[in-house]
Amino acid sequence: MSLPKSELPTSGDGVPPPPSNNKTTMDDAISSSRSSSEATHDDNRLTIEPGDLEKVMSKHEDADVAVTIQETNDPNVVNWDGPDDPEKPLNWPASKKWINIALISSITFLTPFASSTFAPGVPLVMEEFGEKSLAVASLVVSIYVLGYVFGPLIIAPASEHYGRLPVYHVNTFLFLAFSIGCARSTSISMLIVFRFLAGVAGSSPITIGSGTIADTFKQEQRGKVMSIWSFPILFGPSLGPVVGSYLSAAAGWRWDFYLISICTAILLVLTVVCQRETYPPVLLERKAKRLRKETGNYKLRSALQTPKTPREMFLLSIVRPIKMLCFSPIIFGTSLYIAVTYGYLYLLFTTVTFVFEDQYGISSSNVGLVYLGTGLGQLVGLTGFGYFSDRLLKKWAKGGELKPELRLPLLWPGAALIPSGLFIYGWSAEYKVHWIVPIIGTFIFGAGMIITFMPIGTYLVDSYTIYAASAMAANTVLRSIGGALLPLAGRSLYKALGLGWGNSLLAFIALGMTPMIWVFCKYGEKIRKRFQLNL
């Protein structure tokens, strides 16, 4: 039996001290088994009953709180078979973990790839359907990203209720169906609707991929894994137009969607056959169900079982990402910063074709190649982040606690590169300097963007481990609003201010947001602990 709240002793920092030795350690999948970081929290454990887990985690959502369950006197509680239980995702063989990550990364590449593959083919669509509006030309591309706003609000809670695997499978199937719908569209409005629905379903791997990583990898390993998983989110949109420009010119714009459908069908088969569930509460519930059947003891229950009904849990999970976005300054601030830079990326994607065709006379079949500047910049930025992130985390920790805020200093190089790239791109294109110069500008911008994107994503996963999917869903919602809406202003912005001052305005806004990084780095931990949410 747990102590009454008034009798729970606390240490100086307000976190209860460790329990006595007759307590058994609960599922690390919530947050323990984390190496150095977790070792620090081992001295801050809380004794609770299984049904109180959600309440405790809600009060301590800002840290990797190691929780112990009072199960010594309750033989009906089903838990892992010790900290080294091979069924626990953190203890899976490396090959099993990486097969999962490879499949998730492949889907994560395909859905952002689909967001921009179609961009070079927009003039062909406008001609076929007799549409002349510039706003519609931008909307038919950016509406896909608007789907990213709504998808995470259902997908993240569904994954925390039903598990990751069924959510991946269902949304991959829906993405396939909606992509075929795009290919078979008979009007511009039909195409826009199916593009939006494809974006909703396609947000699945982007939303819960980080949750899968939190399920299976320790904190000091996540920087590298997050970089591998996150790279397709940004590189996919850069590579898409390269493929789309040639495919549209050779076979028509519909084949952009047929190609996506074929690749999705292949990945759907592979994931159904090879992918495995990683969410610990679901795995423990399966174990309890199996033991109930084998033993005939129907009192057995998972250590992570909650007293709430499935309906209550699902509704709570739906509200959670919105609550985190609205009431956590850390999540809102980091998401806002990413939203602006992500919006810049899609603004470039929807205008680069016209800029290089009009300013440099590049043909529609070759114009997709100019997107490689951004993609190569992202590749360089990713390589640098993947190499330095985990190493610097351990170095800056100096053998102490691996605080999530130690991820954030890497934001500074990205904050400098983004406006620099925009200045170079805008003014060189304005004065028609050799075409390689604006591409160098997009290269610098791409490197800066991924160097800001990666630390923030890893920071949120480290900070809100048990609710990593919801934290990233909140981030994805605001980020996608920027990605969907800013491109709508791109053509008008350049028409009013020109390429030079238009991109300079974007660069000045990016510079104006850099003080946020200083606030995150210096006061992030205090803010995070000050605004603890009852999730």
From TrEMBL:
Looking up InterPro entries in the UniProt record yields: MFS (IPR011701), MFS_dom (IPR020846), MFS_trans_sf (IPR036259)
Q: Which residues form the Major facilitator superfamily (MFS) profile domain?
A: 100-530
GO molecular-function term, one example from the UniProt record: transmembrane transporter activity
Per its UniProt entry, which superkingdom is the organism in?
Answer: Eukaryota
Q: Positions of the region Disordered?
A: 1-52
Pfam families assigned to the protein according to its UniProt record, in alphabetical order: MFS_1 (PF07690)
Main location as per UniProt: membrane
Alphabetized, the UniProt keywords read: Membrane, Transmembrane, Transmembrane helix
**Keyword Transmembrane recorded:** yes
Transmembrane parts of this sequence: 98-122, 134-155, 167-186, 192-214, 226-249, 255-274, 325-349, 369-388, 408-427, 433-454, 466-489, 501-521
Q: Where in the cell is it found?
A: Membrane
GO annotations of cellular component type = membrane
Look up keyword Membrane and say if it applies. yes
Its placement in the membrane is given as: Multi-pass membrane protein
| Record's compositionally biased regions (Basic and acidic residues) | 39-52
**UniProt-listed PANTHER family:** MAJOR FACILITATOR SUPERFAMILY, MULTIDRUG TRANSPORTER, PUTATIVE (AFU_ORTHOLOGUE AFUA_7G00230)-RELATED
Spell out the protein name for this chain: Major facilitator superfamily (MFS) profile domain-containing protein
UniProt source species = Exophiala oligosperma
Ranked from the top, the taxonomy reads: Eukaryota, Fungi, Dikarya, Ascomycota, Pezizomycotina
